[in-house]
TrEMBL record:
<dbReference type="InterPro" id="IPR008909">
    <property type="entry name" value="DALR_anticod-bd"/>
</dbReference>
<dbReference type="InterPro" id="IPR009080">
    <property type="entry name" value="tRNAsynth_Ia_anticodon-bd"/>
</dbReference>
<keyword id="KW-0547">Nucleotide-binding</keyword>
<dbReference type="GO" id="GO:0004814">
    <property type="term" value="F:arginine-tRNA ligase activity"/>
</dbReference>
<dbReference type="InterPro" id="IPR036695">
    <property type="entry name" value="Arg-tRNA-synth_N_sf"/>
</dbReference>
<keyword id="KW-0436">Ligase</keyword>
<dbReference type="GO" id="GO:0006420">
    <property type="term" value="P:arginyl-tRNA aminoacylation"/>
</dbReference>
<protein>
    <recommendedName>
        <fullName>DALR anticodon binding domain-containing protein</fullName>
    </recommendedName>
</protein>
<dbReference type="Pfam" id="PF05746">
    <property type="entry name" value="DALR_1"/>
</dbReference>
<dbReference type="GO" id="GO:0005737">
    <property type="term" value="C:cytoplasm"/>
</dbReference>
<keyword id="KW-0067">ATP-binding</keyword>
<dbReference type="GO" id="GO:0005524">
    <property type="term" value="F:ATP binding"/>
</dbReference>
<feature type="domain" description="DALR anticodon binding">
    <location>
        <begin position="134"/>
        <end position="283"/>
    </location>
</feature>
Length: 283
């Protein structure tokens, strides 16, 4: 990873954040090129796996287990409190996002504009009928946020914008109550976890556009937006915000609206900047 981009990337994606920590942990001993880092497919957890110790074993002339233990010891304070670090069999380093850490990243995603790369490759032209479900999801996000503002579940700082905002700034609650009094994430429904997983997957797949060396690596923007749109529709059909939830669990309703904020932000980012399409307020 290019060191010139670490300060920017570390605030954009989890993958950038972890790669920068790995680079600091490895120090001046060399990385043999790219650092292997992949996310587990388990949507119930946000778990990253790295086989960097296996890659370094020959150069460092140590066993993968020994190298992994050394790196994990160095990584732990660098990643705290966002990630818990441990060594799995065969020298694989596991980094699992904690609930408080996930809350921080969700808050950032819901309330911070993604930086637009200076140079970018637009997606091939996508037909209007294929774009429509994605645009519909964006419009539905906007509609739900306006309804929640009117019902005083949340307070949007500037709700009467003429066009769809990239980020709707929340006046309240701020921060969004992602976690409960026991520091556990409120969002535990499978559809919530699936949407969270897809949000992070989109960010990880957008990672090359924020990293100088990989900026020409192709990214299937339509596929990313389509998958996020589908995850949102499932979430919306299974996770209530109004009715009993609004009355008895208002903070859960606000956390679910936080997911909608994050989804709206990412859908608009991809639609307008990479699919050359409108992100409508309503349809």
């Amino acid at each position: 990873m290019d060191t010139a981009n670490i300060s920017q990337c570390s605030e954009v994606t989890l993958k950038c954040f972890l790669l920068s920590r790995f680079q600091r942990a490895i120090g001046q001993q060399g990385t043999l090129g790219e650092i292997p880092l992949n996310r587990s497919k388990d949507s119930a957890r946000v778990l990253y796996l790295s086989a960097i110790a296996l890659k370094l074993a020959k150069t460092w002339q140590q066993t993968p287990q020994t190298i992994a233990a050394q790196l994990a010891e160095t990584l732990e304070p660098l990643c705290y409190p966002d990630f818990a670090v441990k060594v799995a069999p065969a020298g694989i380093i596991e980094l699992e996002l904690t609930d408080p850490g996930l809350a921080v990243w969700l808050q950032r995603l819901a309330q911070t504009n993604l930086p637009l790369p200076e140079s970018r490759i637009l997606s091939p032209v996508v037909s209007a009928d294929r774009l429509f479900p994605i645009q519909y999801s964006h419009a539905r996000c906007c509609s739900l946020l306006r309804m929640a503002h009117r019902d005083r579940i949340i307070s949007i700082a500037q709700p009467d914008v003429a066009t769809a905002p990239q980020i709707w700034s929340l006046a309240a609650p701020n921060p969004i109550p992602w976690i409960d009094d026991g520091d556990r994430l409120r969002l535990v429904h499978p559809a919530e976890r699936s949407l969270i997983s897809q949000l992070l997957t989109v960010l990880d797949n957008l990672y090359p556009i924020f990293e100088v060396k990989n900026r020409e690596k192709p990214v299937n923007y339509f596929k990313l937006a389509k998958s996020l749109s589908e995850a949102f529709q499932i979430f919306y059909s299974q996770c209530q915000i109004w009715g009993e939830v609004k009355i008895e669990q208002p903070q859960l309703a606000q956390a679910r609206l936080g997911l909608i904020l994050a989804t709206q932000s990412l859908l608009r980012f991809i639609l307008e900047n990479f699919l050359n399409a409108i992100a409508p307020l309503e349809l």
